[in-house]
Amino acid sequence: MPESPIRKLVPFAEKAKKLGKEVIHLNIGQPDIETPEVALNAVKNLNLKVLEYSHSAGNESYRKGLAEYYSKISAGITHEEVMVTTGGSEALSFAFTACLNPGDEVIIPEPFYANYNGFAETTGVKVVPINSKIENGFALPPIADFEAKISAKTKAILICNPGNPTGYLYSKEELIQLRDLVKKHDLYLFADEVYREFCYDGKKHESILSLEGIEENVIVVDSVSKRYSMCGVRIGALVSRNKEVMSTILKLAQARLSPPLLGQIASEAALKTPQSYFDQVSKEYVERRDILVDGLNAIDGVFCPKPGGAFYAVAQLPVEDTEDFCQWMLESFEHNGKTVMMAPVSGFYSTPGEGKKEVRLAYVLEKEKLKQALVCIEAGIKAYQNK
Amino acid sequence: MPESPIRKLVPFAEKAKKLGKEVIHLNIGQPDIETPEVALNAVKNLNLKVLEYSHSAGNESYRKGLAEYYSKISAGITHEEVMVTTGGSEALSFAFTACLNPGDEVIIPEPFYANYNGFAETTGVKVVPINSKIENGFALPPIADFEAKISAKTKAILICNPGNPTGYLYSKEELIQLRDLVKKHDLYLFADEVYREFCYDGKKHESILSLEGIEENVIVVDSVSKRYSMCGVRIGALVSRNKEVMSTILKLAQARLSPPLLGQIASEAALKTPQSYFDQVSKEYVERRDILVDGLNAIDGVFCPKPGGAFYAVAQLPVEDTEDFCQWMLESFEHNGKTVMMAPVSGFYSTPGEGKKEVRLAYVLEKEKLKQALVCIEAGIKAYQNK
């Protein structure tokens, strides 16, 4: 596995900190939002004497709770159509292993979450990227682009909705286009919907679970990590109405025995998180997004489409190579004792050379820090251009 | 993946319970022993507001605690030589992926923990079994048997010590024989040592970490599941002094982001479990083992070597096929309203046809239940023979 452009930066960030610089981290998706109290309390009120294995598919009571949650998205989901996994990562790895064979191809609109490459590599599956464009906010590429890449080896399409790194939220129309394509070629449609709860400006999230006519083709990858700001519990889920796929996945789940028990206790309790929590979180993220994105677009030569979901934005900077720029920001620049760490987006593209001018910024920090980051980025760009 | 003989029995056990039979489960390794209070209390006293990702390699404070623990086994282990994993399962899967390529061969004395097959299958590695014999208590097979199976494709030997399903505890002499073999052919030596703490009759566990001259070849797979009776937390560890292997494994660990946070909190606290806990647990297991094994050997036609460690015993029964017998015990037999579920050992052999007369029994239940189980097994064998 090649080292990712973000990981390459880590030693530079560490060195910068050792030298006394404050590094503002816009590079990672670890929210500072508090975990819902109802989840924390469930852990604190633990009343078990033995921390036993749970069912390989996850505790039944939790799966039933999840089935109720998913049934609000698409009627009639049962707990047997839900598998509790060790994070969204394992859900995706299960989906790849269960549905694809070595040599098969999966089409993914790029830029995409770089870890997808790791799951593909482990299972011997080839990723076929389809370029989406910053100019139109990373909307779904034309279906003709997909058609051009579909071969006998193509077995699946994978989307992330809303997207990491783009924050783009697919419209119902775009999903219906994908539905028709998937149906026509009898492909699997995988959707990573871990940011489902984070949709802004009154837009509604459309899950692929609700697409009619491809019920057997659809596999949803989910996670509590971002939804309840508890990335550390490592609890995800896989949802599918395809009985054969679910039966294969149960065998994979049995091989690793069970998903984490304590995380399941927190996650089951989190299902009772009041709507007020989400409203407050959503309001906070919209404010942060607006500060960050508006601030970026106010900088000379920077272009950043306003994302409709998640908590990432991709910006194009007036530099030739953001890998170099991001390293320079850590290594050679500071403004009032501060610098900013951003993720070069080249690592999120599968096509070599794409995204060289782009960075991903995660707005997971408080507004004051984002404002400081903007000042720093503006000063950094100027200094970098004049060096 | 073929269905295991144990899993095939599950529906029969469920049906037996529905019909009102009490099923005594000697088939699974889920101990009834209580988790140490110090671990449960650490969870109850959780004082985090956000359950964040931990470091991909595990929390540094926990890794330092583990380094101290392993240094008592083999001097000088540092926290950089320890990777916290999602259960022992993930540690083994990382070891296979990092050290072996598709087509490589790994030699494993059989019978062995059936899930090893799953990890081999996922990584495209071929398992080459070497038969160990119930007649001598499943001791290490002669080195000549290993030599006969070593080819250019052989890359590793995997042992489980003490063994699941056999309970056999390798002697220092046996490990030195393996050490010499591994050195001669420059192989990896993997040891699953998750039952390390369960050694009886004054015998001492020898870890492969302490074998001199093959420091770079050794990879230990570990877990807190059995040690502290907390299988549900899904925390394991991988220990190796091989820097290159550890660097590859860190990349695999990064791809799945982090091991479970709450389980790490419990596990770090569990390092402070008082010796009195282990003494009590060990005393309990020895009493259970003696009741079970002596009781089995008192049954006409049954042979069960007394294991030196873990909490499993393999017994040879006077029946032709334990898969059939175990199913019959669930489906067609009861004694005072009870029956016993055991694991046919054929599923733990890689060589077809081996172990057909053997069952694995886990002595993870209280003594009274074990006595009831023995009565039941004796009556069952008689009835089965006379049917």
Low-pLDDT regions of chain A: none
Strand order of the largest sheet of chain A: 2-8-7-6-5-3-4
Globular, elongated, flat, extended or rod-shaped: what is the shape of chain A? globular
Order of helices and strands of chain A: HEHHEHEHEHEHEEEHHHEHEEEH
Work out the number of β strands of chain A. Answer: 12
Per DSSP, the total helix count of chain A is: 12
Question: What does this protein structure show overall?
Answer:
- 2 copies of one chain form a homodimer.
- Chain A is 40% helix and 15% strand.
- With 387 residues, chain A is α/β, with parallel strands linked by helices.
- In chain A, helix 4 packs parallel to helix 5 and helix 4 packs across helix 8.
- The longest helix of chain A is centred in the C-terminal third of the chain and has 23 residues, at 275-297.
- The model of chain A has no long low-confidence stretch (mean pLDDT 95).
Compose a concise summary of this entry:
The structure is a homodimer of 387-residue chains. The first copy, chain A, has 387 residues and is an alpha/beta fold. Helices cover 40% and strands 15% of the residues of chain A.
Overview features:
387 residues; alpha/beta; 12 helices; three-stranded antiparallel sheet; 15% strand; homodimer
SSE map:
2 copies of one chain form a homodimer.
Chain A: H1 5-18, E1 22-25, H2 37-44, H3 60-71, E2 82-85, H4 87-99, E3 105-110, H5 115-123, E4 126-131, H6 143-149, E5 154-160, H7 172-185, E6 188-192, E7 218-223, E8 236-240, H8 243-255, H9 261-270, H10 275-297, E9 312-316, H11 322-332, E10 338-341, E11 343-344, E12 358-362, H12 367-385
Parallel strand pairs in A: 1-10, 3-4, 3-5, 5-6, 6-7
Antiparallel strand pairs in A: 2-8, 7-8, 9-12, 11-12
Helix pairs in contact in A: 1-11, 2-9, 3-9, 4-5, 4-8, 10-12
